[in-house]
Design brief:
Helices cover about 40% and strands about 20% of the residues. With about 220 residues, it is of the alpha/beta class. Strand 4, helix 4 and strand 5 form a beta-alpha-beta unit. Helix 1 packs across helix 5. About 35% of the residues are buried.
Length: about 220
């Protein structure tokens, strides 16, 4: 199912619209209209990406996103009619890769899908300490797997590919959120904090993501 896009949408008209446009672009799809069925389906399958509606019967999209991020880094695009900034930030901090606000055009959805899939693919970075497989979205540190969200993986890739370089928060936001959305500094800080915690769990003796006071962050090889 790695080439399949999971559409989680309880409005049949929208689900059909997503499916038709995705099929025309060569993607296979699976549709689920009940929030309670999503997590188990994702555990049994490996979709390439999830289009996840925020308002669903049974279980809402934010809760689903949080549960999926506890075991998978599959790219997630949240679809929402809520325009409040707190909902957008909360969705992203829970591990969503992007969001689309209703109403939207099918072309916009396709552009976001392709952009996220393009962002989450790439080259492989190997070192004695850190291995980043951007095609399979797997990060290992000293041979042990890091269970990272998509955004955490991207942050680690950006920093580790240029050891010693200091990235400002704005630079990191520009590289991760390529659609030029407005994201506050604390969002990057939150992702970095979670990334460090996961690194510490695997290798508590290593401090490879360092803060540069008043500037930003850098990767420092052990």
């Amino acid at each position: 199912m790695k080439d399949t896009i999971l559409i989680v949408e309880d409005e049949q008209r929208l689900a059909d619209l997503h499916r038709d446009y995705l099929h025309k672009s060569g993607y296979a799809t699976e549709c689920i209209d009940d929030g309670t069925a999503v997590v188990q389906w994702v555990k049994k399958n490996e979709p390439a990406l999830i289009l996840l509606d925020l308002m669903l019967p049974g279980k809402d999209g934010l809760e689903i996103c949080k549960e999926i991020r506890s075991f998978s880094s599959v790219p997630i695009i949240m679809v929402t009619a809520r325009i409040e900034e707190i909902d957008r930030l909360l969705g992203l901090e829970l591990g969503a890769d992007d969001y689309i606000c209703k109403p939207f055009s099918p072309r916009e959805v396709m552009a976001r899908v392709k952009a996220v899939l393009r962002r989450t693919a790439g080259t492989v970075l190997n070192s004695e300490i850190l291995n980043l497989d951007a095609e399979r979205y797997i990060a290992t540190l000293q041979g042990r797997k890091l269970d990272l969200t998509a955004v955490e993986f991207q942050l680690l890739c950006i920093l580790a590919k240029q050891p010693g370089r200091i990235f400002t928060r704005d630079q990191l936001m520009d590289r991760i959120y390529t659609d030029q959305r407005i994201v506050c500094d604390r969002t990057i800080d939150s992702h970095i904090k979670k990334l460090r915690k996961k690194i510490s769990t695997v290798a508590p003796e290593l401090e490879i993501i360092r803060s540069v006071y008043g500037v930003g962050y850098k990767y420092e090889s052990p």
